Amino acid sequence: AACQPNTPPPPDLSVSAWGPVVTLAQAEQANAPPLSVSPNGVTTAWVGADEKGVFQALRTLNTDVMGEAVRLPRGVRPYAQQFAPAANDRQHLFWLDSNVEGETRLFTALLKPDLERERELTILTRQITRRYSLLPVADGGVWAIASGGLASEPALYAHYVDGDGRWRLSENYRIAADADWPAALYRS
Question: How far is residue 111 from each of residues 56, 157, 161, measured CA to CA in Å?
Answer without folding.
Answer: 13, 24, 13
